[in-house]
Specification:
This protein is of the alpha+beta class. It contains 3 helices and 8 strands, in the order βαβββαβαβββ. The protein binds ligand LZKTLF4L and cobalt (II) ion. It comes from Hymenobacter lapidiphilus.
Length: about 140
């Protein structure tokens, strides 16, 4: 079951400049900065009510964010939903014909297990499923 819009992922060229901008825009500082080596990204998280903004910058040429920004302007990169049971949701989406970008859940940022759905099977939106690690059975 999808339980919440967990975060909006924004791809940015200059993480420090974007962090300063969003600190002013949101009127609050980020609550977390995290490097995710497996994705070759640096992330900065802001909490906005029940949702979050995740700023992402690529840290290597083969980072998905670097590749994205080589072809597209800065902006919305993905939408992430919180799920109660990521494995069950992956099975459900596979059976429904969605293309998943990873076979198994993988460690994401912010203490989450994550999986991505290809934008081509989600009406042009890169969708991320997130399950809190603490809640993993
Ligand atoms: C996990 C840490 C953190 C977290 O929250 O926990 C993150 O969120 S990390 C986020 C970065 N990691 C990822 O995005 C992993 C999943 N992404 C991928 O596997 C690729 O980026 C992929 C498959 C979506 C695109 O791969 P690639 O760029 O090599 O392919 P193309 O450029 O050929 O794109 C194919 C096709 O898809 C369109 N596209 C690409 N990226 C996006 C996007 N973010 N949103 C919407 N559409 C996207 C692209 O335009 C191409 O379409 P076409 O019509 O053929 O031009
Ligand atoms: Co994300």
């Amino acid at each position: 079951m999808f339980t919440n819009l967990e975060h909006l992922g924004l791809a940015v060229n200059d993480l420090e400049a974007a962090t300063a901008l969003y600190t002013t825009l949101l009127g609050q500082p980020p609550y977390k900065r995290e490097h995710v080596a497996s994705e070759a990204v640096d992330t900065v998280f802001f909490q906005v009510g029940g949702s979050k903004i995740e700023l992402l910058a690529g840290t290597s040429p083969d980072s998905a964010i670097t590749k994205f920004l080589a072809k597209k302007p800065e902006g919305i990169h993905h939408v992430a939903f919180e799920v109660a049971d990521i494995r069950a949701e992956m099975e459900r989406l596979r059976a429904a014909g969605f293309t998943l970008l990873n076979e198994e859940p993988k460690r994401g940022a912010d203490n989450k297990l994550v999986c991505f759905v290809h934008p081509k099977s989600a009406a042009g939106v890169l969708v991320e499923l997130c399950q809190s690690v603490e809640s993993e059975v």
